[in-house]
């Protein structure tokens, strides 16, 4: 997996369903590489392990402080620290502390997508992108996953789901730039 350009951070994402999901939660208004590096930074600051049960058990203000230390985990460490804390709590309460339980043993993508959308901070678009990421890079492919992921499930370079190296990252960025340009042009018509 290549999402951060940092081998140790990418290894954590490849090995931990929880870290990958939290990276997706953090992927908002900051570069993708920083967002997906967030779980490694959190793990380092919490003694070397990425542990959602430990995050959930930490007082929210203490966790926000951990996320706010320089360099901050996110551009908005307060709100995103609270969001990560909420997701960790949801994972502990609803999925035995394991994000993989959201999709493991589930045969239809609609159920996985619904479970993802119900997590704090994962609306429709992020849920679809994450479903595509699971299908394309983790071989998690419940029935109908490509259709449920919408355009993100298609071949091409549309989102983080399609990033496998620096070149594909640049292709995704070019696609997003073109999308913004087209939307702006349509809005001015």
How would you characterize this protein structure?
The chain is mostly helical and 189 residues long. Helices cover 62% and strands 0% of the residues. It has helices at 7-15, 17-26, 32-45, 52-57, 60-68, 77-95, 109-117, 124-137, 145-148, 166-188. Helix 2 packs across helix 3 (32-45), helix 5 (60-68) packs across helix 6 and helix 7 packs across helix 8 (124-137). The longest helix has 23 residues, at 166-188. It is globular, with a radius of gyration of 16 Å. 41% of the residues are buried.
Can you give me a brief rundown of this structure?
This protein has helices spanning 7-15, 17-26, 32-45, 52-57, 60-68, 77-95, 109-117, 124-137, 145-148, 166-188.
Topology:
Blueprint: H1 7-15, H2 17-26, H3 32-45, H4 52-57, H5 60-68, H6 77-95, H7 109-117, H8 124-137, H9 145-148, H10 166-188
Helix pairs in contact: 1-2, 1-3, 2-3, 5-6, 7-8
**End-to-end distance, in Å?**
41 Å
- State the major sheet: none
The unreliable regions are none
Mean pLDDT: 95
**Strand fraction:** under 5%
Global geometry: globular
Tell me the number of helical segments per DSSP (H or I, 4 or more residues long).
10
| Percent range of helical residues | 55-70%
Structural class, please?
mainly alpha
What value does the Rg take, in angstroms?
Answer: 16 Å
The sequence of SSEs as H and E is: HHHHHHHHHH
DSSP strand count: 0
């Amino acid at each position: 997996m290549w999402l951060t350009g940092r081998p140790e951070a990418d290894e954590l994402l490849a090995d931990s369903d929880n870290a990958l999901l939290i990276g997706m939660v953090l992927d908002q208004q900051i570069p993708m590489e920083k967002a997906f590096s967030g779980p490694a930074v959190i793990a380092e600051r919490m003694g070397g392990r990425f542990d959602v049960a430990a995050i959930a058990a930490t007082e929210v203000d203490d966790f926000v402080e951990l996320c706010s230390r320089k360099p901050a985990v996110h551009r908005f460490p307060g709100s995103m620290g609270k969001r990560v804390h909420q997701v960790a709590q949801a994972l502990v309460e609803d999925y035995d502390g394991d994000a993989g339980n959201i999709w493991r043993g589930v045969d239809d993508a609609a159920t996985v997508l619904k479970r993802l959308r119900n997590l704090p901070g994962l609306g429709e678009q992020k849920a679809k992108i994450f479903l595509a990421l699971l299908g394309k890079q983790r071989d998690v492919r419940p029935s109908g996953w490509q259709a449920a992921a919408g355009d993100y499930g298609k071949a091409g370079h549309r989102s983080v789901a399609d990033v496998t190296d620096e070149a594909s990252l640049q292709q995704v960025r070019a696609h997003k730039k073109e999308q913004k340009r087209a939307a702006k042009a349509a809005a001015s018509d």
